[in-house]
3-hexulose-6-phosphate synthase (Peribacillus simplex), 210 residues
Amino acid sequence: MKIQLALDRMNMEEAIEMARSVEASIDWIEVGTSLIKEFGVNSIKEMKNHFPDKKIVADMKTMDNAVYEMDLCFQSGADVATVMGAASDVTIQKCLEKACEYKGQIMIDLLNVSDTRLEQLRIYRQAIFCEHVSKDSQENSGHAMINMRNHAGSMRAAAGGIALSSLPVMVRKGLDVIIIGSAITKAKDPAEAARLFKETVNGKKGVKEV
Ligand SMILES: O=C(CO)[C@H](O)[C@H](O)COP(=O)(O)O
């Protein structure tokens, strides 16, 4: 299971410093939507320049204009770019074609994707399927409940308010990628928090507890 560090709501200097302080315990680095919106695709370029050996995920959340947005992401050094599952099929198809052209990957964000839409998305088997609890729901309900649906045959990821306490459940679900933002970036000691996440993922600590 890969740990994807989500970087949001900070400036680029802070984002790079944060990634540097936890890099030993994480696998993929997500340039969060908020960074891309605030600093443009240069944020992706900058992150790749600083961490050439890490997989860089551009959380673009593409909804339309796939060719243009995917060119921007992959030419800026992204290895993975996100597209919303609620986007039209032509958008998702174009994202996949672009990912293929750049030898990258697409992550489909399943935020507000119904079971019916999910069935239709199953044809995009080469994509990573990401179940996602939104920041707004987290802030409204105070906790995250990630419903992992069946994504047989594809890589599976989960995001949204994942904490050390909820990690063992996620680990047991056998995900491929676990996306963690605030639980690391807002921790008193991010390096120690990331280390504990890594230890749990590796099964050295409390995977059986809930
Ligand atoms: O996509 C996102 C926000 O839209 C974040 O990447 C995701 O929510 C992970 O961050 P956190 O663990 O803080 O919820």
